[in-house]
Design goal:
alpha+beta
Length: 130
Amino acid sequence: MITIYEERRKGAVADTIEHSHTSLEQCLEVIQRMDGFTCSQVTIAYRENMIMIGGGSEAFIVTVETSTALHNLLGALEEEDEDEFVEITVGGQACEFPQKYIVSFELVESALIQLLEGASVELNWEMIDK
């Protein structure tokens, strides 16, 4: 079962909208609504994993929390960009993230296809043991 938690901000206050028994297509629709301001955080619960997506519009970050590790999706990175930081909003808070974590909507979609449908998709993940 896939459950989506969509954060909607009204100034400093956030409402969380829960979408139960959803599909990959519904997940993608919710993520496409992310604008980096009123909606800058979506969490997807699937099996024992939590898939957290932050940002919106054209810049996203994706972290998957399992019982043993955190997995951060890595974007396409030029070597000269390795030390650069990008400011995006996650959960209503402006944060700076290393450029290597910033991904496009297309990479978010590929990650969800891999995670929710078990498809073999060529992605780069950074793993951090708990």
